[in-house]
Amino acid sequence: MIEFFAMDYAYYVYISFLSFITVVIICTNNAFKHHKITLDRIKNTIHQMSDDNET
Amino acid sequence: MPKKLSLIAGFMAMFRRDLLQSIKSPSQLLNPLIFFIMITATFPFAVNAEKAQLVQIGPGIIWIMAILSYLLTLHHLYLDDAEDGCLDYIMLSPQPLPLLVLAKICAHWISSGLPLIIISPIIGIIYQMQVDTILVMIGTLFFGTFALSLVGSIGASLTISINNSNILVSLLVLPIMMPVLIFGARTIELYQSGATTMPGLYFLGAYCMFALSFSPFASAAALRIGTD
Amino acid sequence: MWIFLHKMASPKYFYRLASSMIPWLFISGLLLMVYGIINGLFYAPSDYQQGDAFRIIYVHVPAAYISMMAYSLMAFAAFIGLIWRIKIAHAVIVSAAPLGAWFTFLALLTGSLWGRPMWGTWWEWGDPRLTSELLMLFLYLGYMALRASIPSITKADKLSAILILIGAINIPIIHYSVEWWTSLHQGSTLLKSGGPSIAAPMLYPLLASIIGLSLFFGSLLLVRTKAEVLKREKHSRWIKDMILGDEV
Which of B22, B182, C123, C157 reaches 20 to 30 Å from C23, CA-CA? Predict the structure, then answer.
């Protein structure tokens, strides 16, 4: 593994790859969380409405 | 006695109206101009530059300040009419809205752009420009301010339904104005170091033509959507 | 095919289709990206001219490609949304904008990290490709700012669609900037007449990375568009039935 740090310009390459992975993880998290929050909010509203209707 | 409804008549009526309005309120006309003069004139003091440096940075500063002070005037292009309800009447007229928008843009350019162009030689002298360089600068500013009027009207019309939209207009217009800024300032700099001006001026002219071909229609569409 | 496209305009059908497509796109995209990155980072041979710094290509080119493809997608969807008044198109534009902006930023960042060892500079202000890519980031941000400041959804849709279409001129400018002007940035390697001018062991991880990131982007786009559709259609019958039936 240590020989991979000996490649030329190792730091630039690794920081690029790490930033890529970071951005991908941020976007994925963001997208799925956004979807989950929207869905939960709508579920709450609809369940509440249907409970009000039943009572 | 119905008035003539030809396109030219409609254009000239709108053009004359806007021009007269801007003459009657000189503060709207003068404020950006004074802003332009103030900052370009005090820049050399702040930078503490020598003559050779001033010559180098001059074109860029003049161009940037021209654009910034011009962006201040774009705010008024549609908002004044929208606020007192004239815009609704304008949109109801039988003349095609893009034509009236074009008339507004031309009137705006004459009332805001031409003073800038007329003042610029004085600023050019502050930045130690030669007379032929000043002519080149006037040429680039001529096309540049017209292009800025065209593109700025799109930004102004998109943000018509928003309060306090001054900064947003600038943010929207700036990416599209970048080529004009780059070519305008660079043409002057290249001329100062000996190259010809024609390629840059041709590009600026082409950009104006291109903007002229879609900007009135885009602005008219945005106005209709924004105020319905 | 026309029936398929017609059905896609309906939010309910789109939601169902998106839900089934997301796992496929996500996993296939992820696998291809992992293959591309691992191979590119460790197993591709060293470039004789650039040494090992060229490996940044395996993240830079996919990010730049996605930044342009996302904007083209937004422009296309803006066209459809304005002319045919299909609401789903506007939902797609809203969802694609943050993703596109992130990848544009990533392209600029990795490009700058590549430029430092190769050209000796983090940034070059006169360079047409760098400037037009930066402009594209401003276009994305301007779009999001415009949307955020207009309260009415239909008005925001139409006005920001106009903005996207006007900025679409930037895409051919970015693409052809290396041909039209002298630029520090190198020219086309893949889409040249005569085939790609890059060696095969270097090419395959690159293609895998590009295609993988595109599929992955597609899956994230569908996730965000599903959320956007939920937000827009929350008063409609099909959503109520779906949630009360616990289908999600």
Answer: C157
pLDDT in tens, C52-87: 777 888 899 999 999 999 999 999 999 999 999 999
Q: Tell me the C-alpha distance between C77 and B83, whole Å.
A: 33
H helices present in C85-127, as ranges: 87-119
**CA-derived radius of gyration, chain B:** 18
Tokens 């700012």 correspond to C145
Rounded to the nearest angstrom, the minimum Cα separation between C246 and chain B is 39
For residue range C88-129, list pLDDT tens digits in order: 999 999 999 999 999 999 999 998 888 888 777 788 777 888
CB contact under 8 A, B158 and C131: no
Contacts of C109 in chain A (CB under 8 A): 16, 19
Q: Report yes or no on chains B and A touching (3+ CB pairs under 8 A).
A: no
**β-strand partners of C47:** C51
Helix/strand/coil for C127:
coil
ipTM of predicted complex: 0.85
Q: Locate tokens 């690794």: which residue?
A: A14
Angle at C201 between CA C198 and CA C207, to 5 degrees: 70
Q: What is the DSSP letter of B4?
A: P
d(CA B3, CA B9): 9
CA pair distance C233, C223, nearest whole angstrom: 15
Chain C: closest CA distance from residue A55 (Å): 16
Please name the residues in contact with B125: beta carbons below 8 A apart, sequence gap of 6 or more: B134
- Confidence (pLDDT) at A1: 44
pTM here is 0.88
- Residue type, position B136, single letter: V
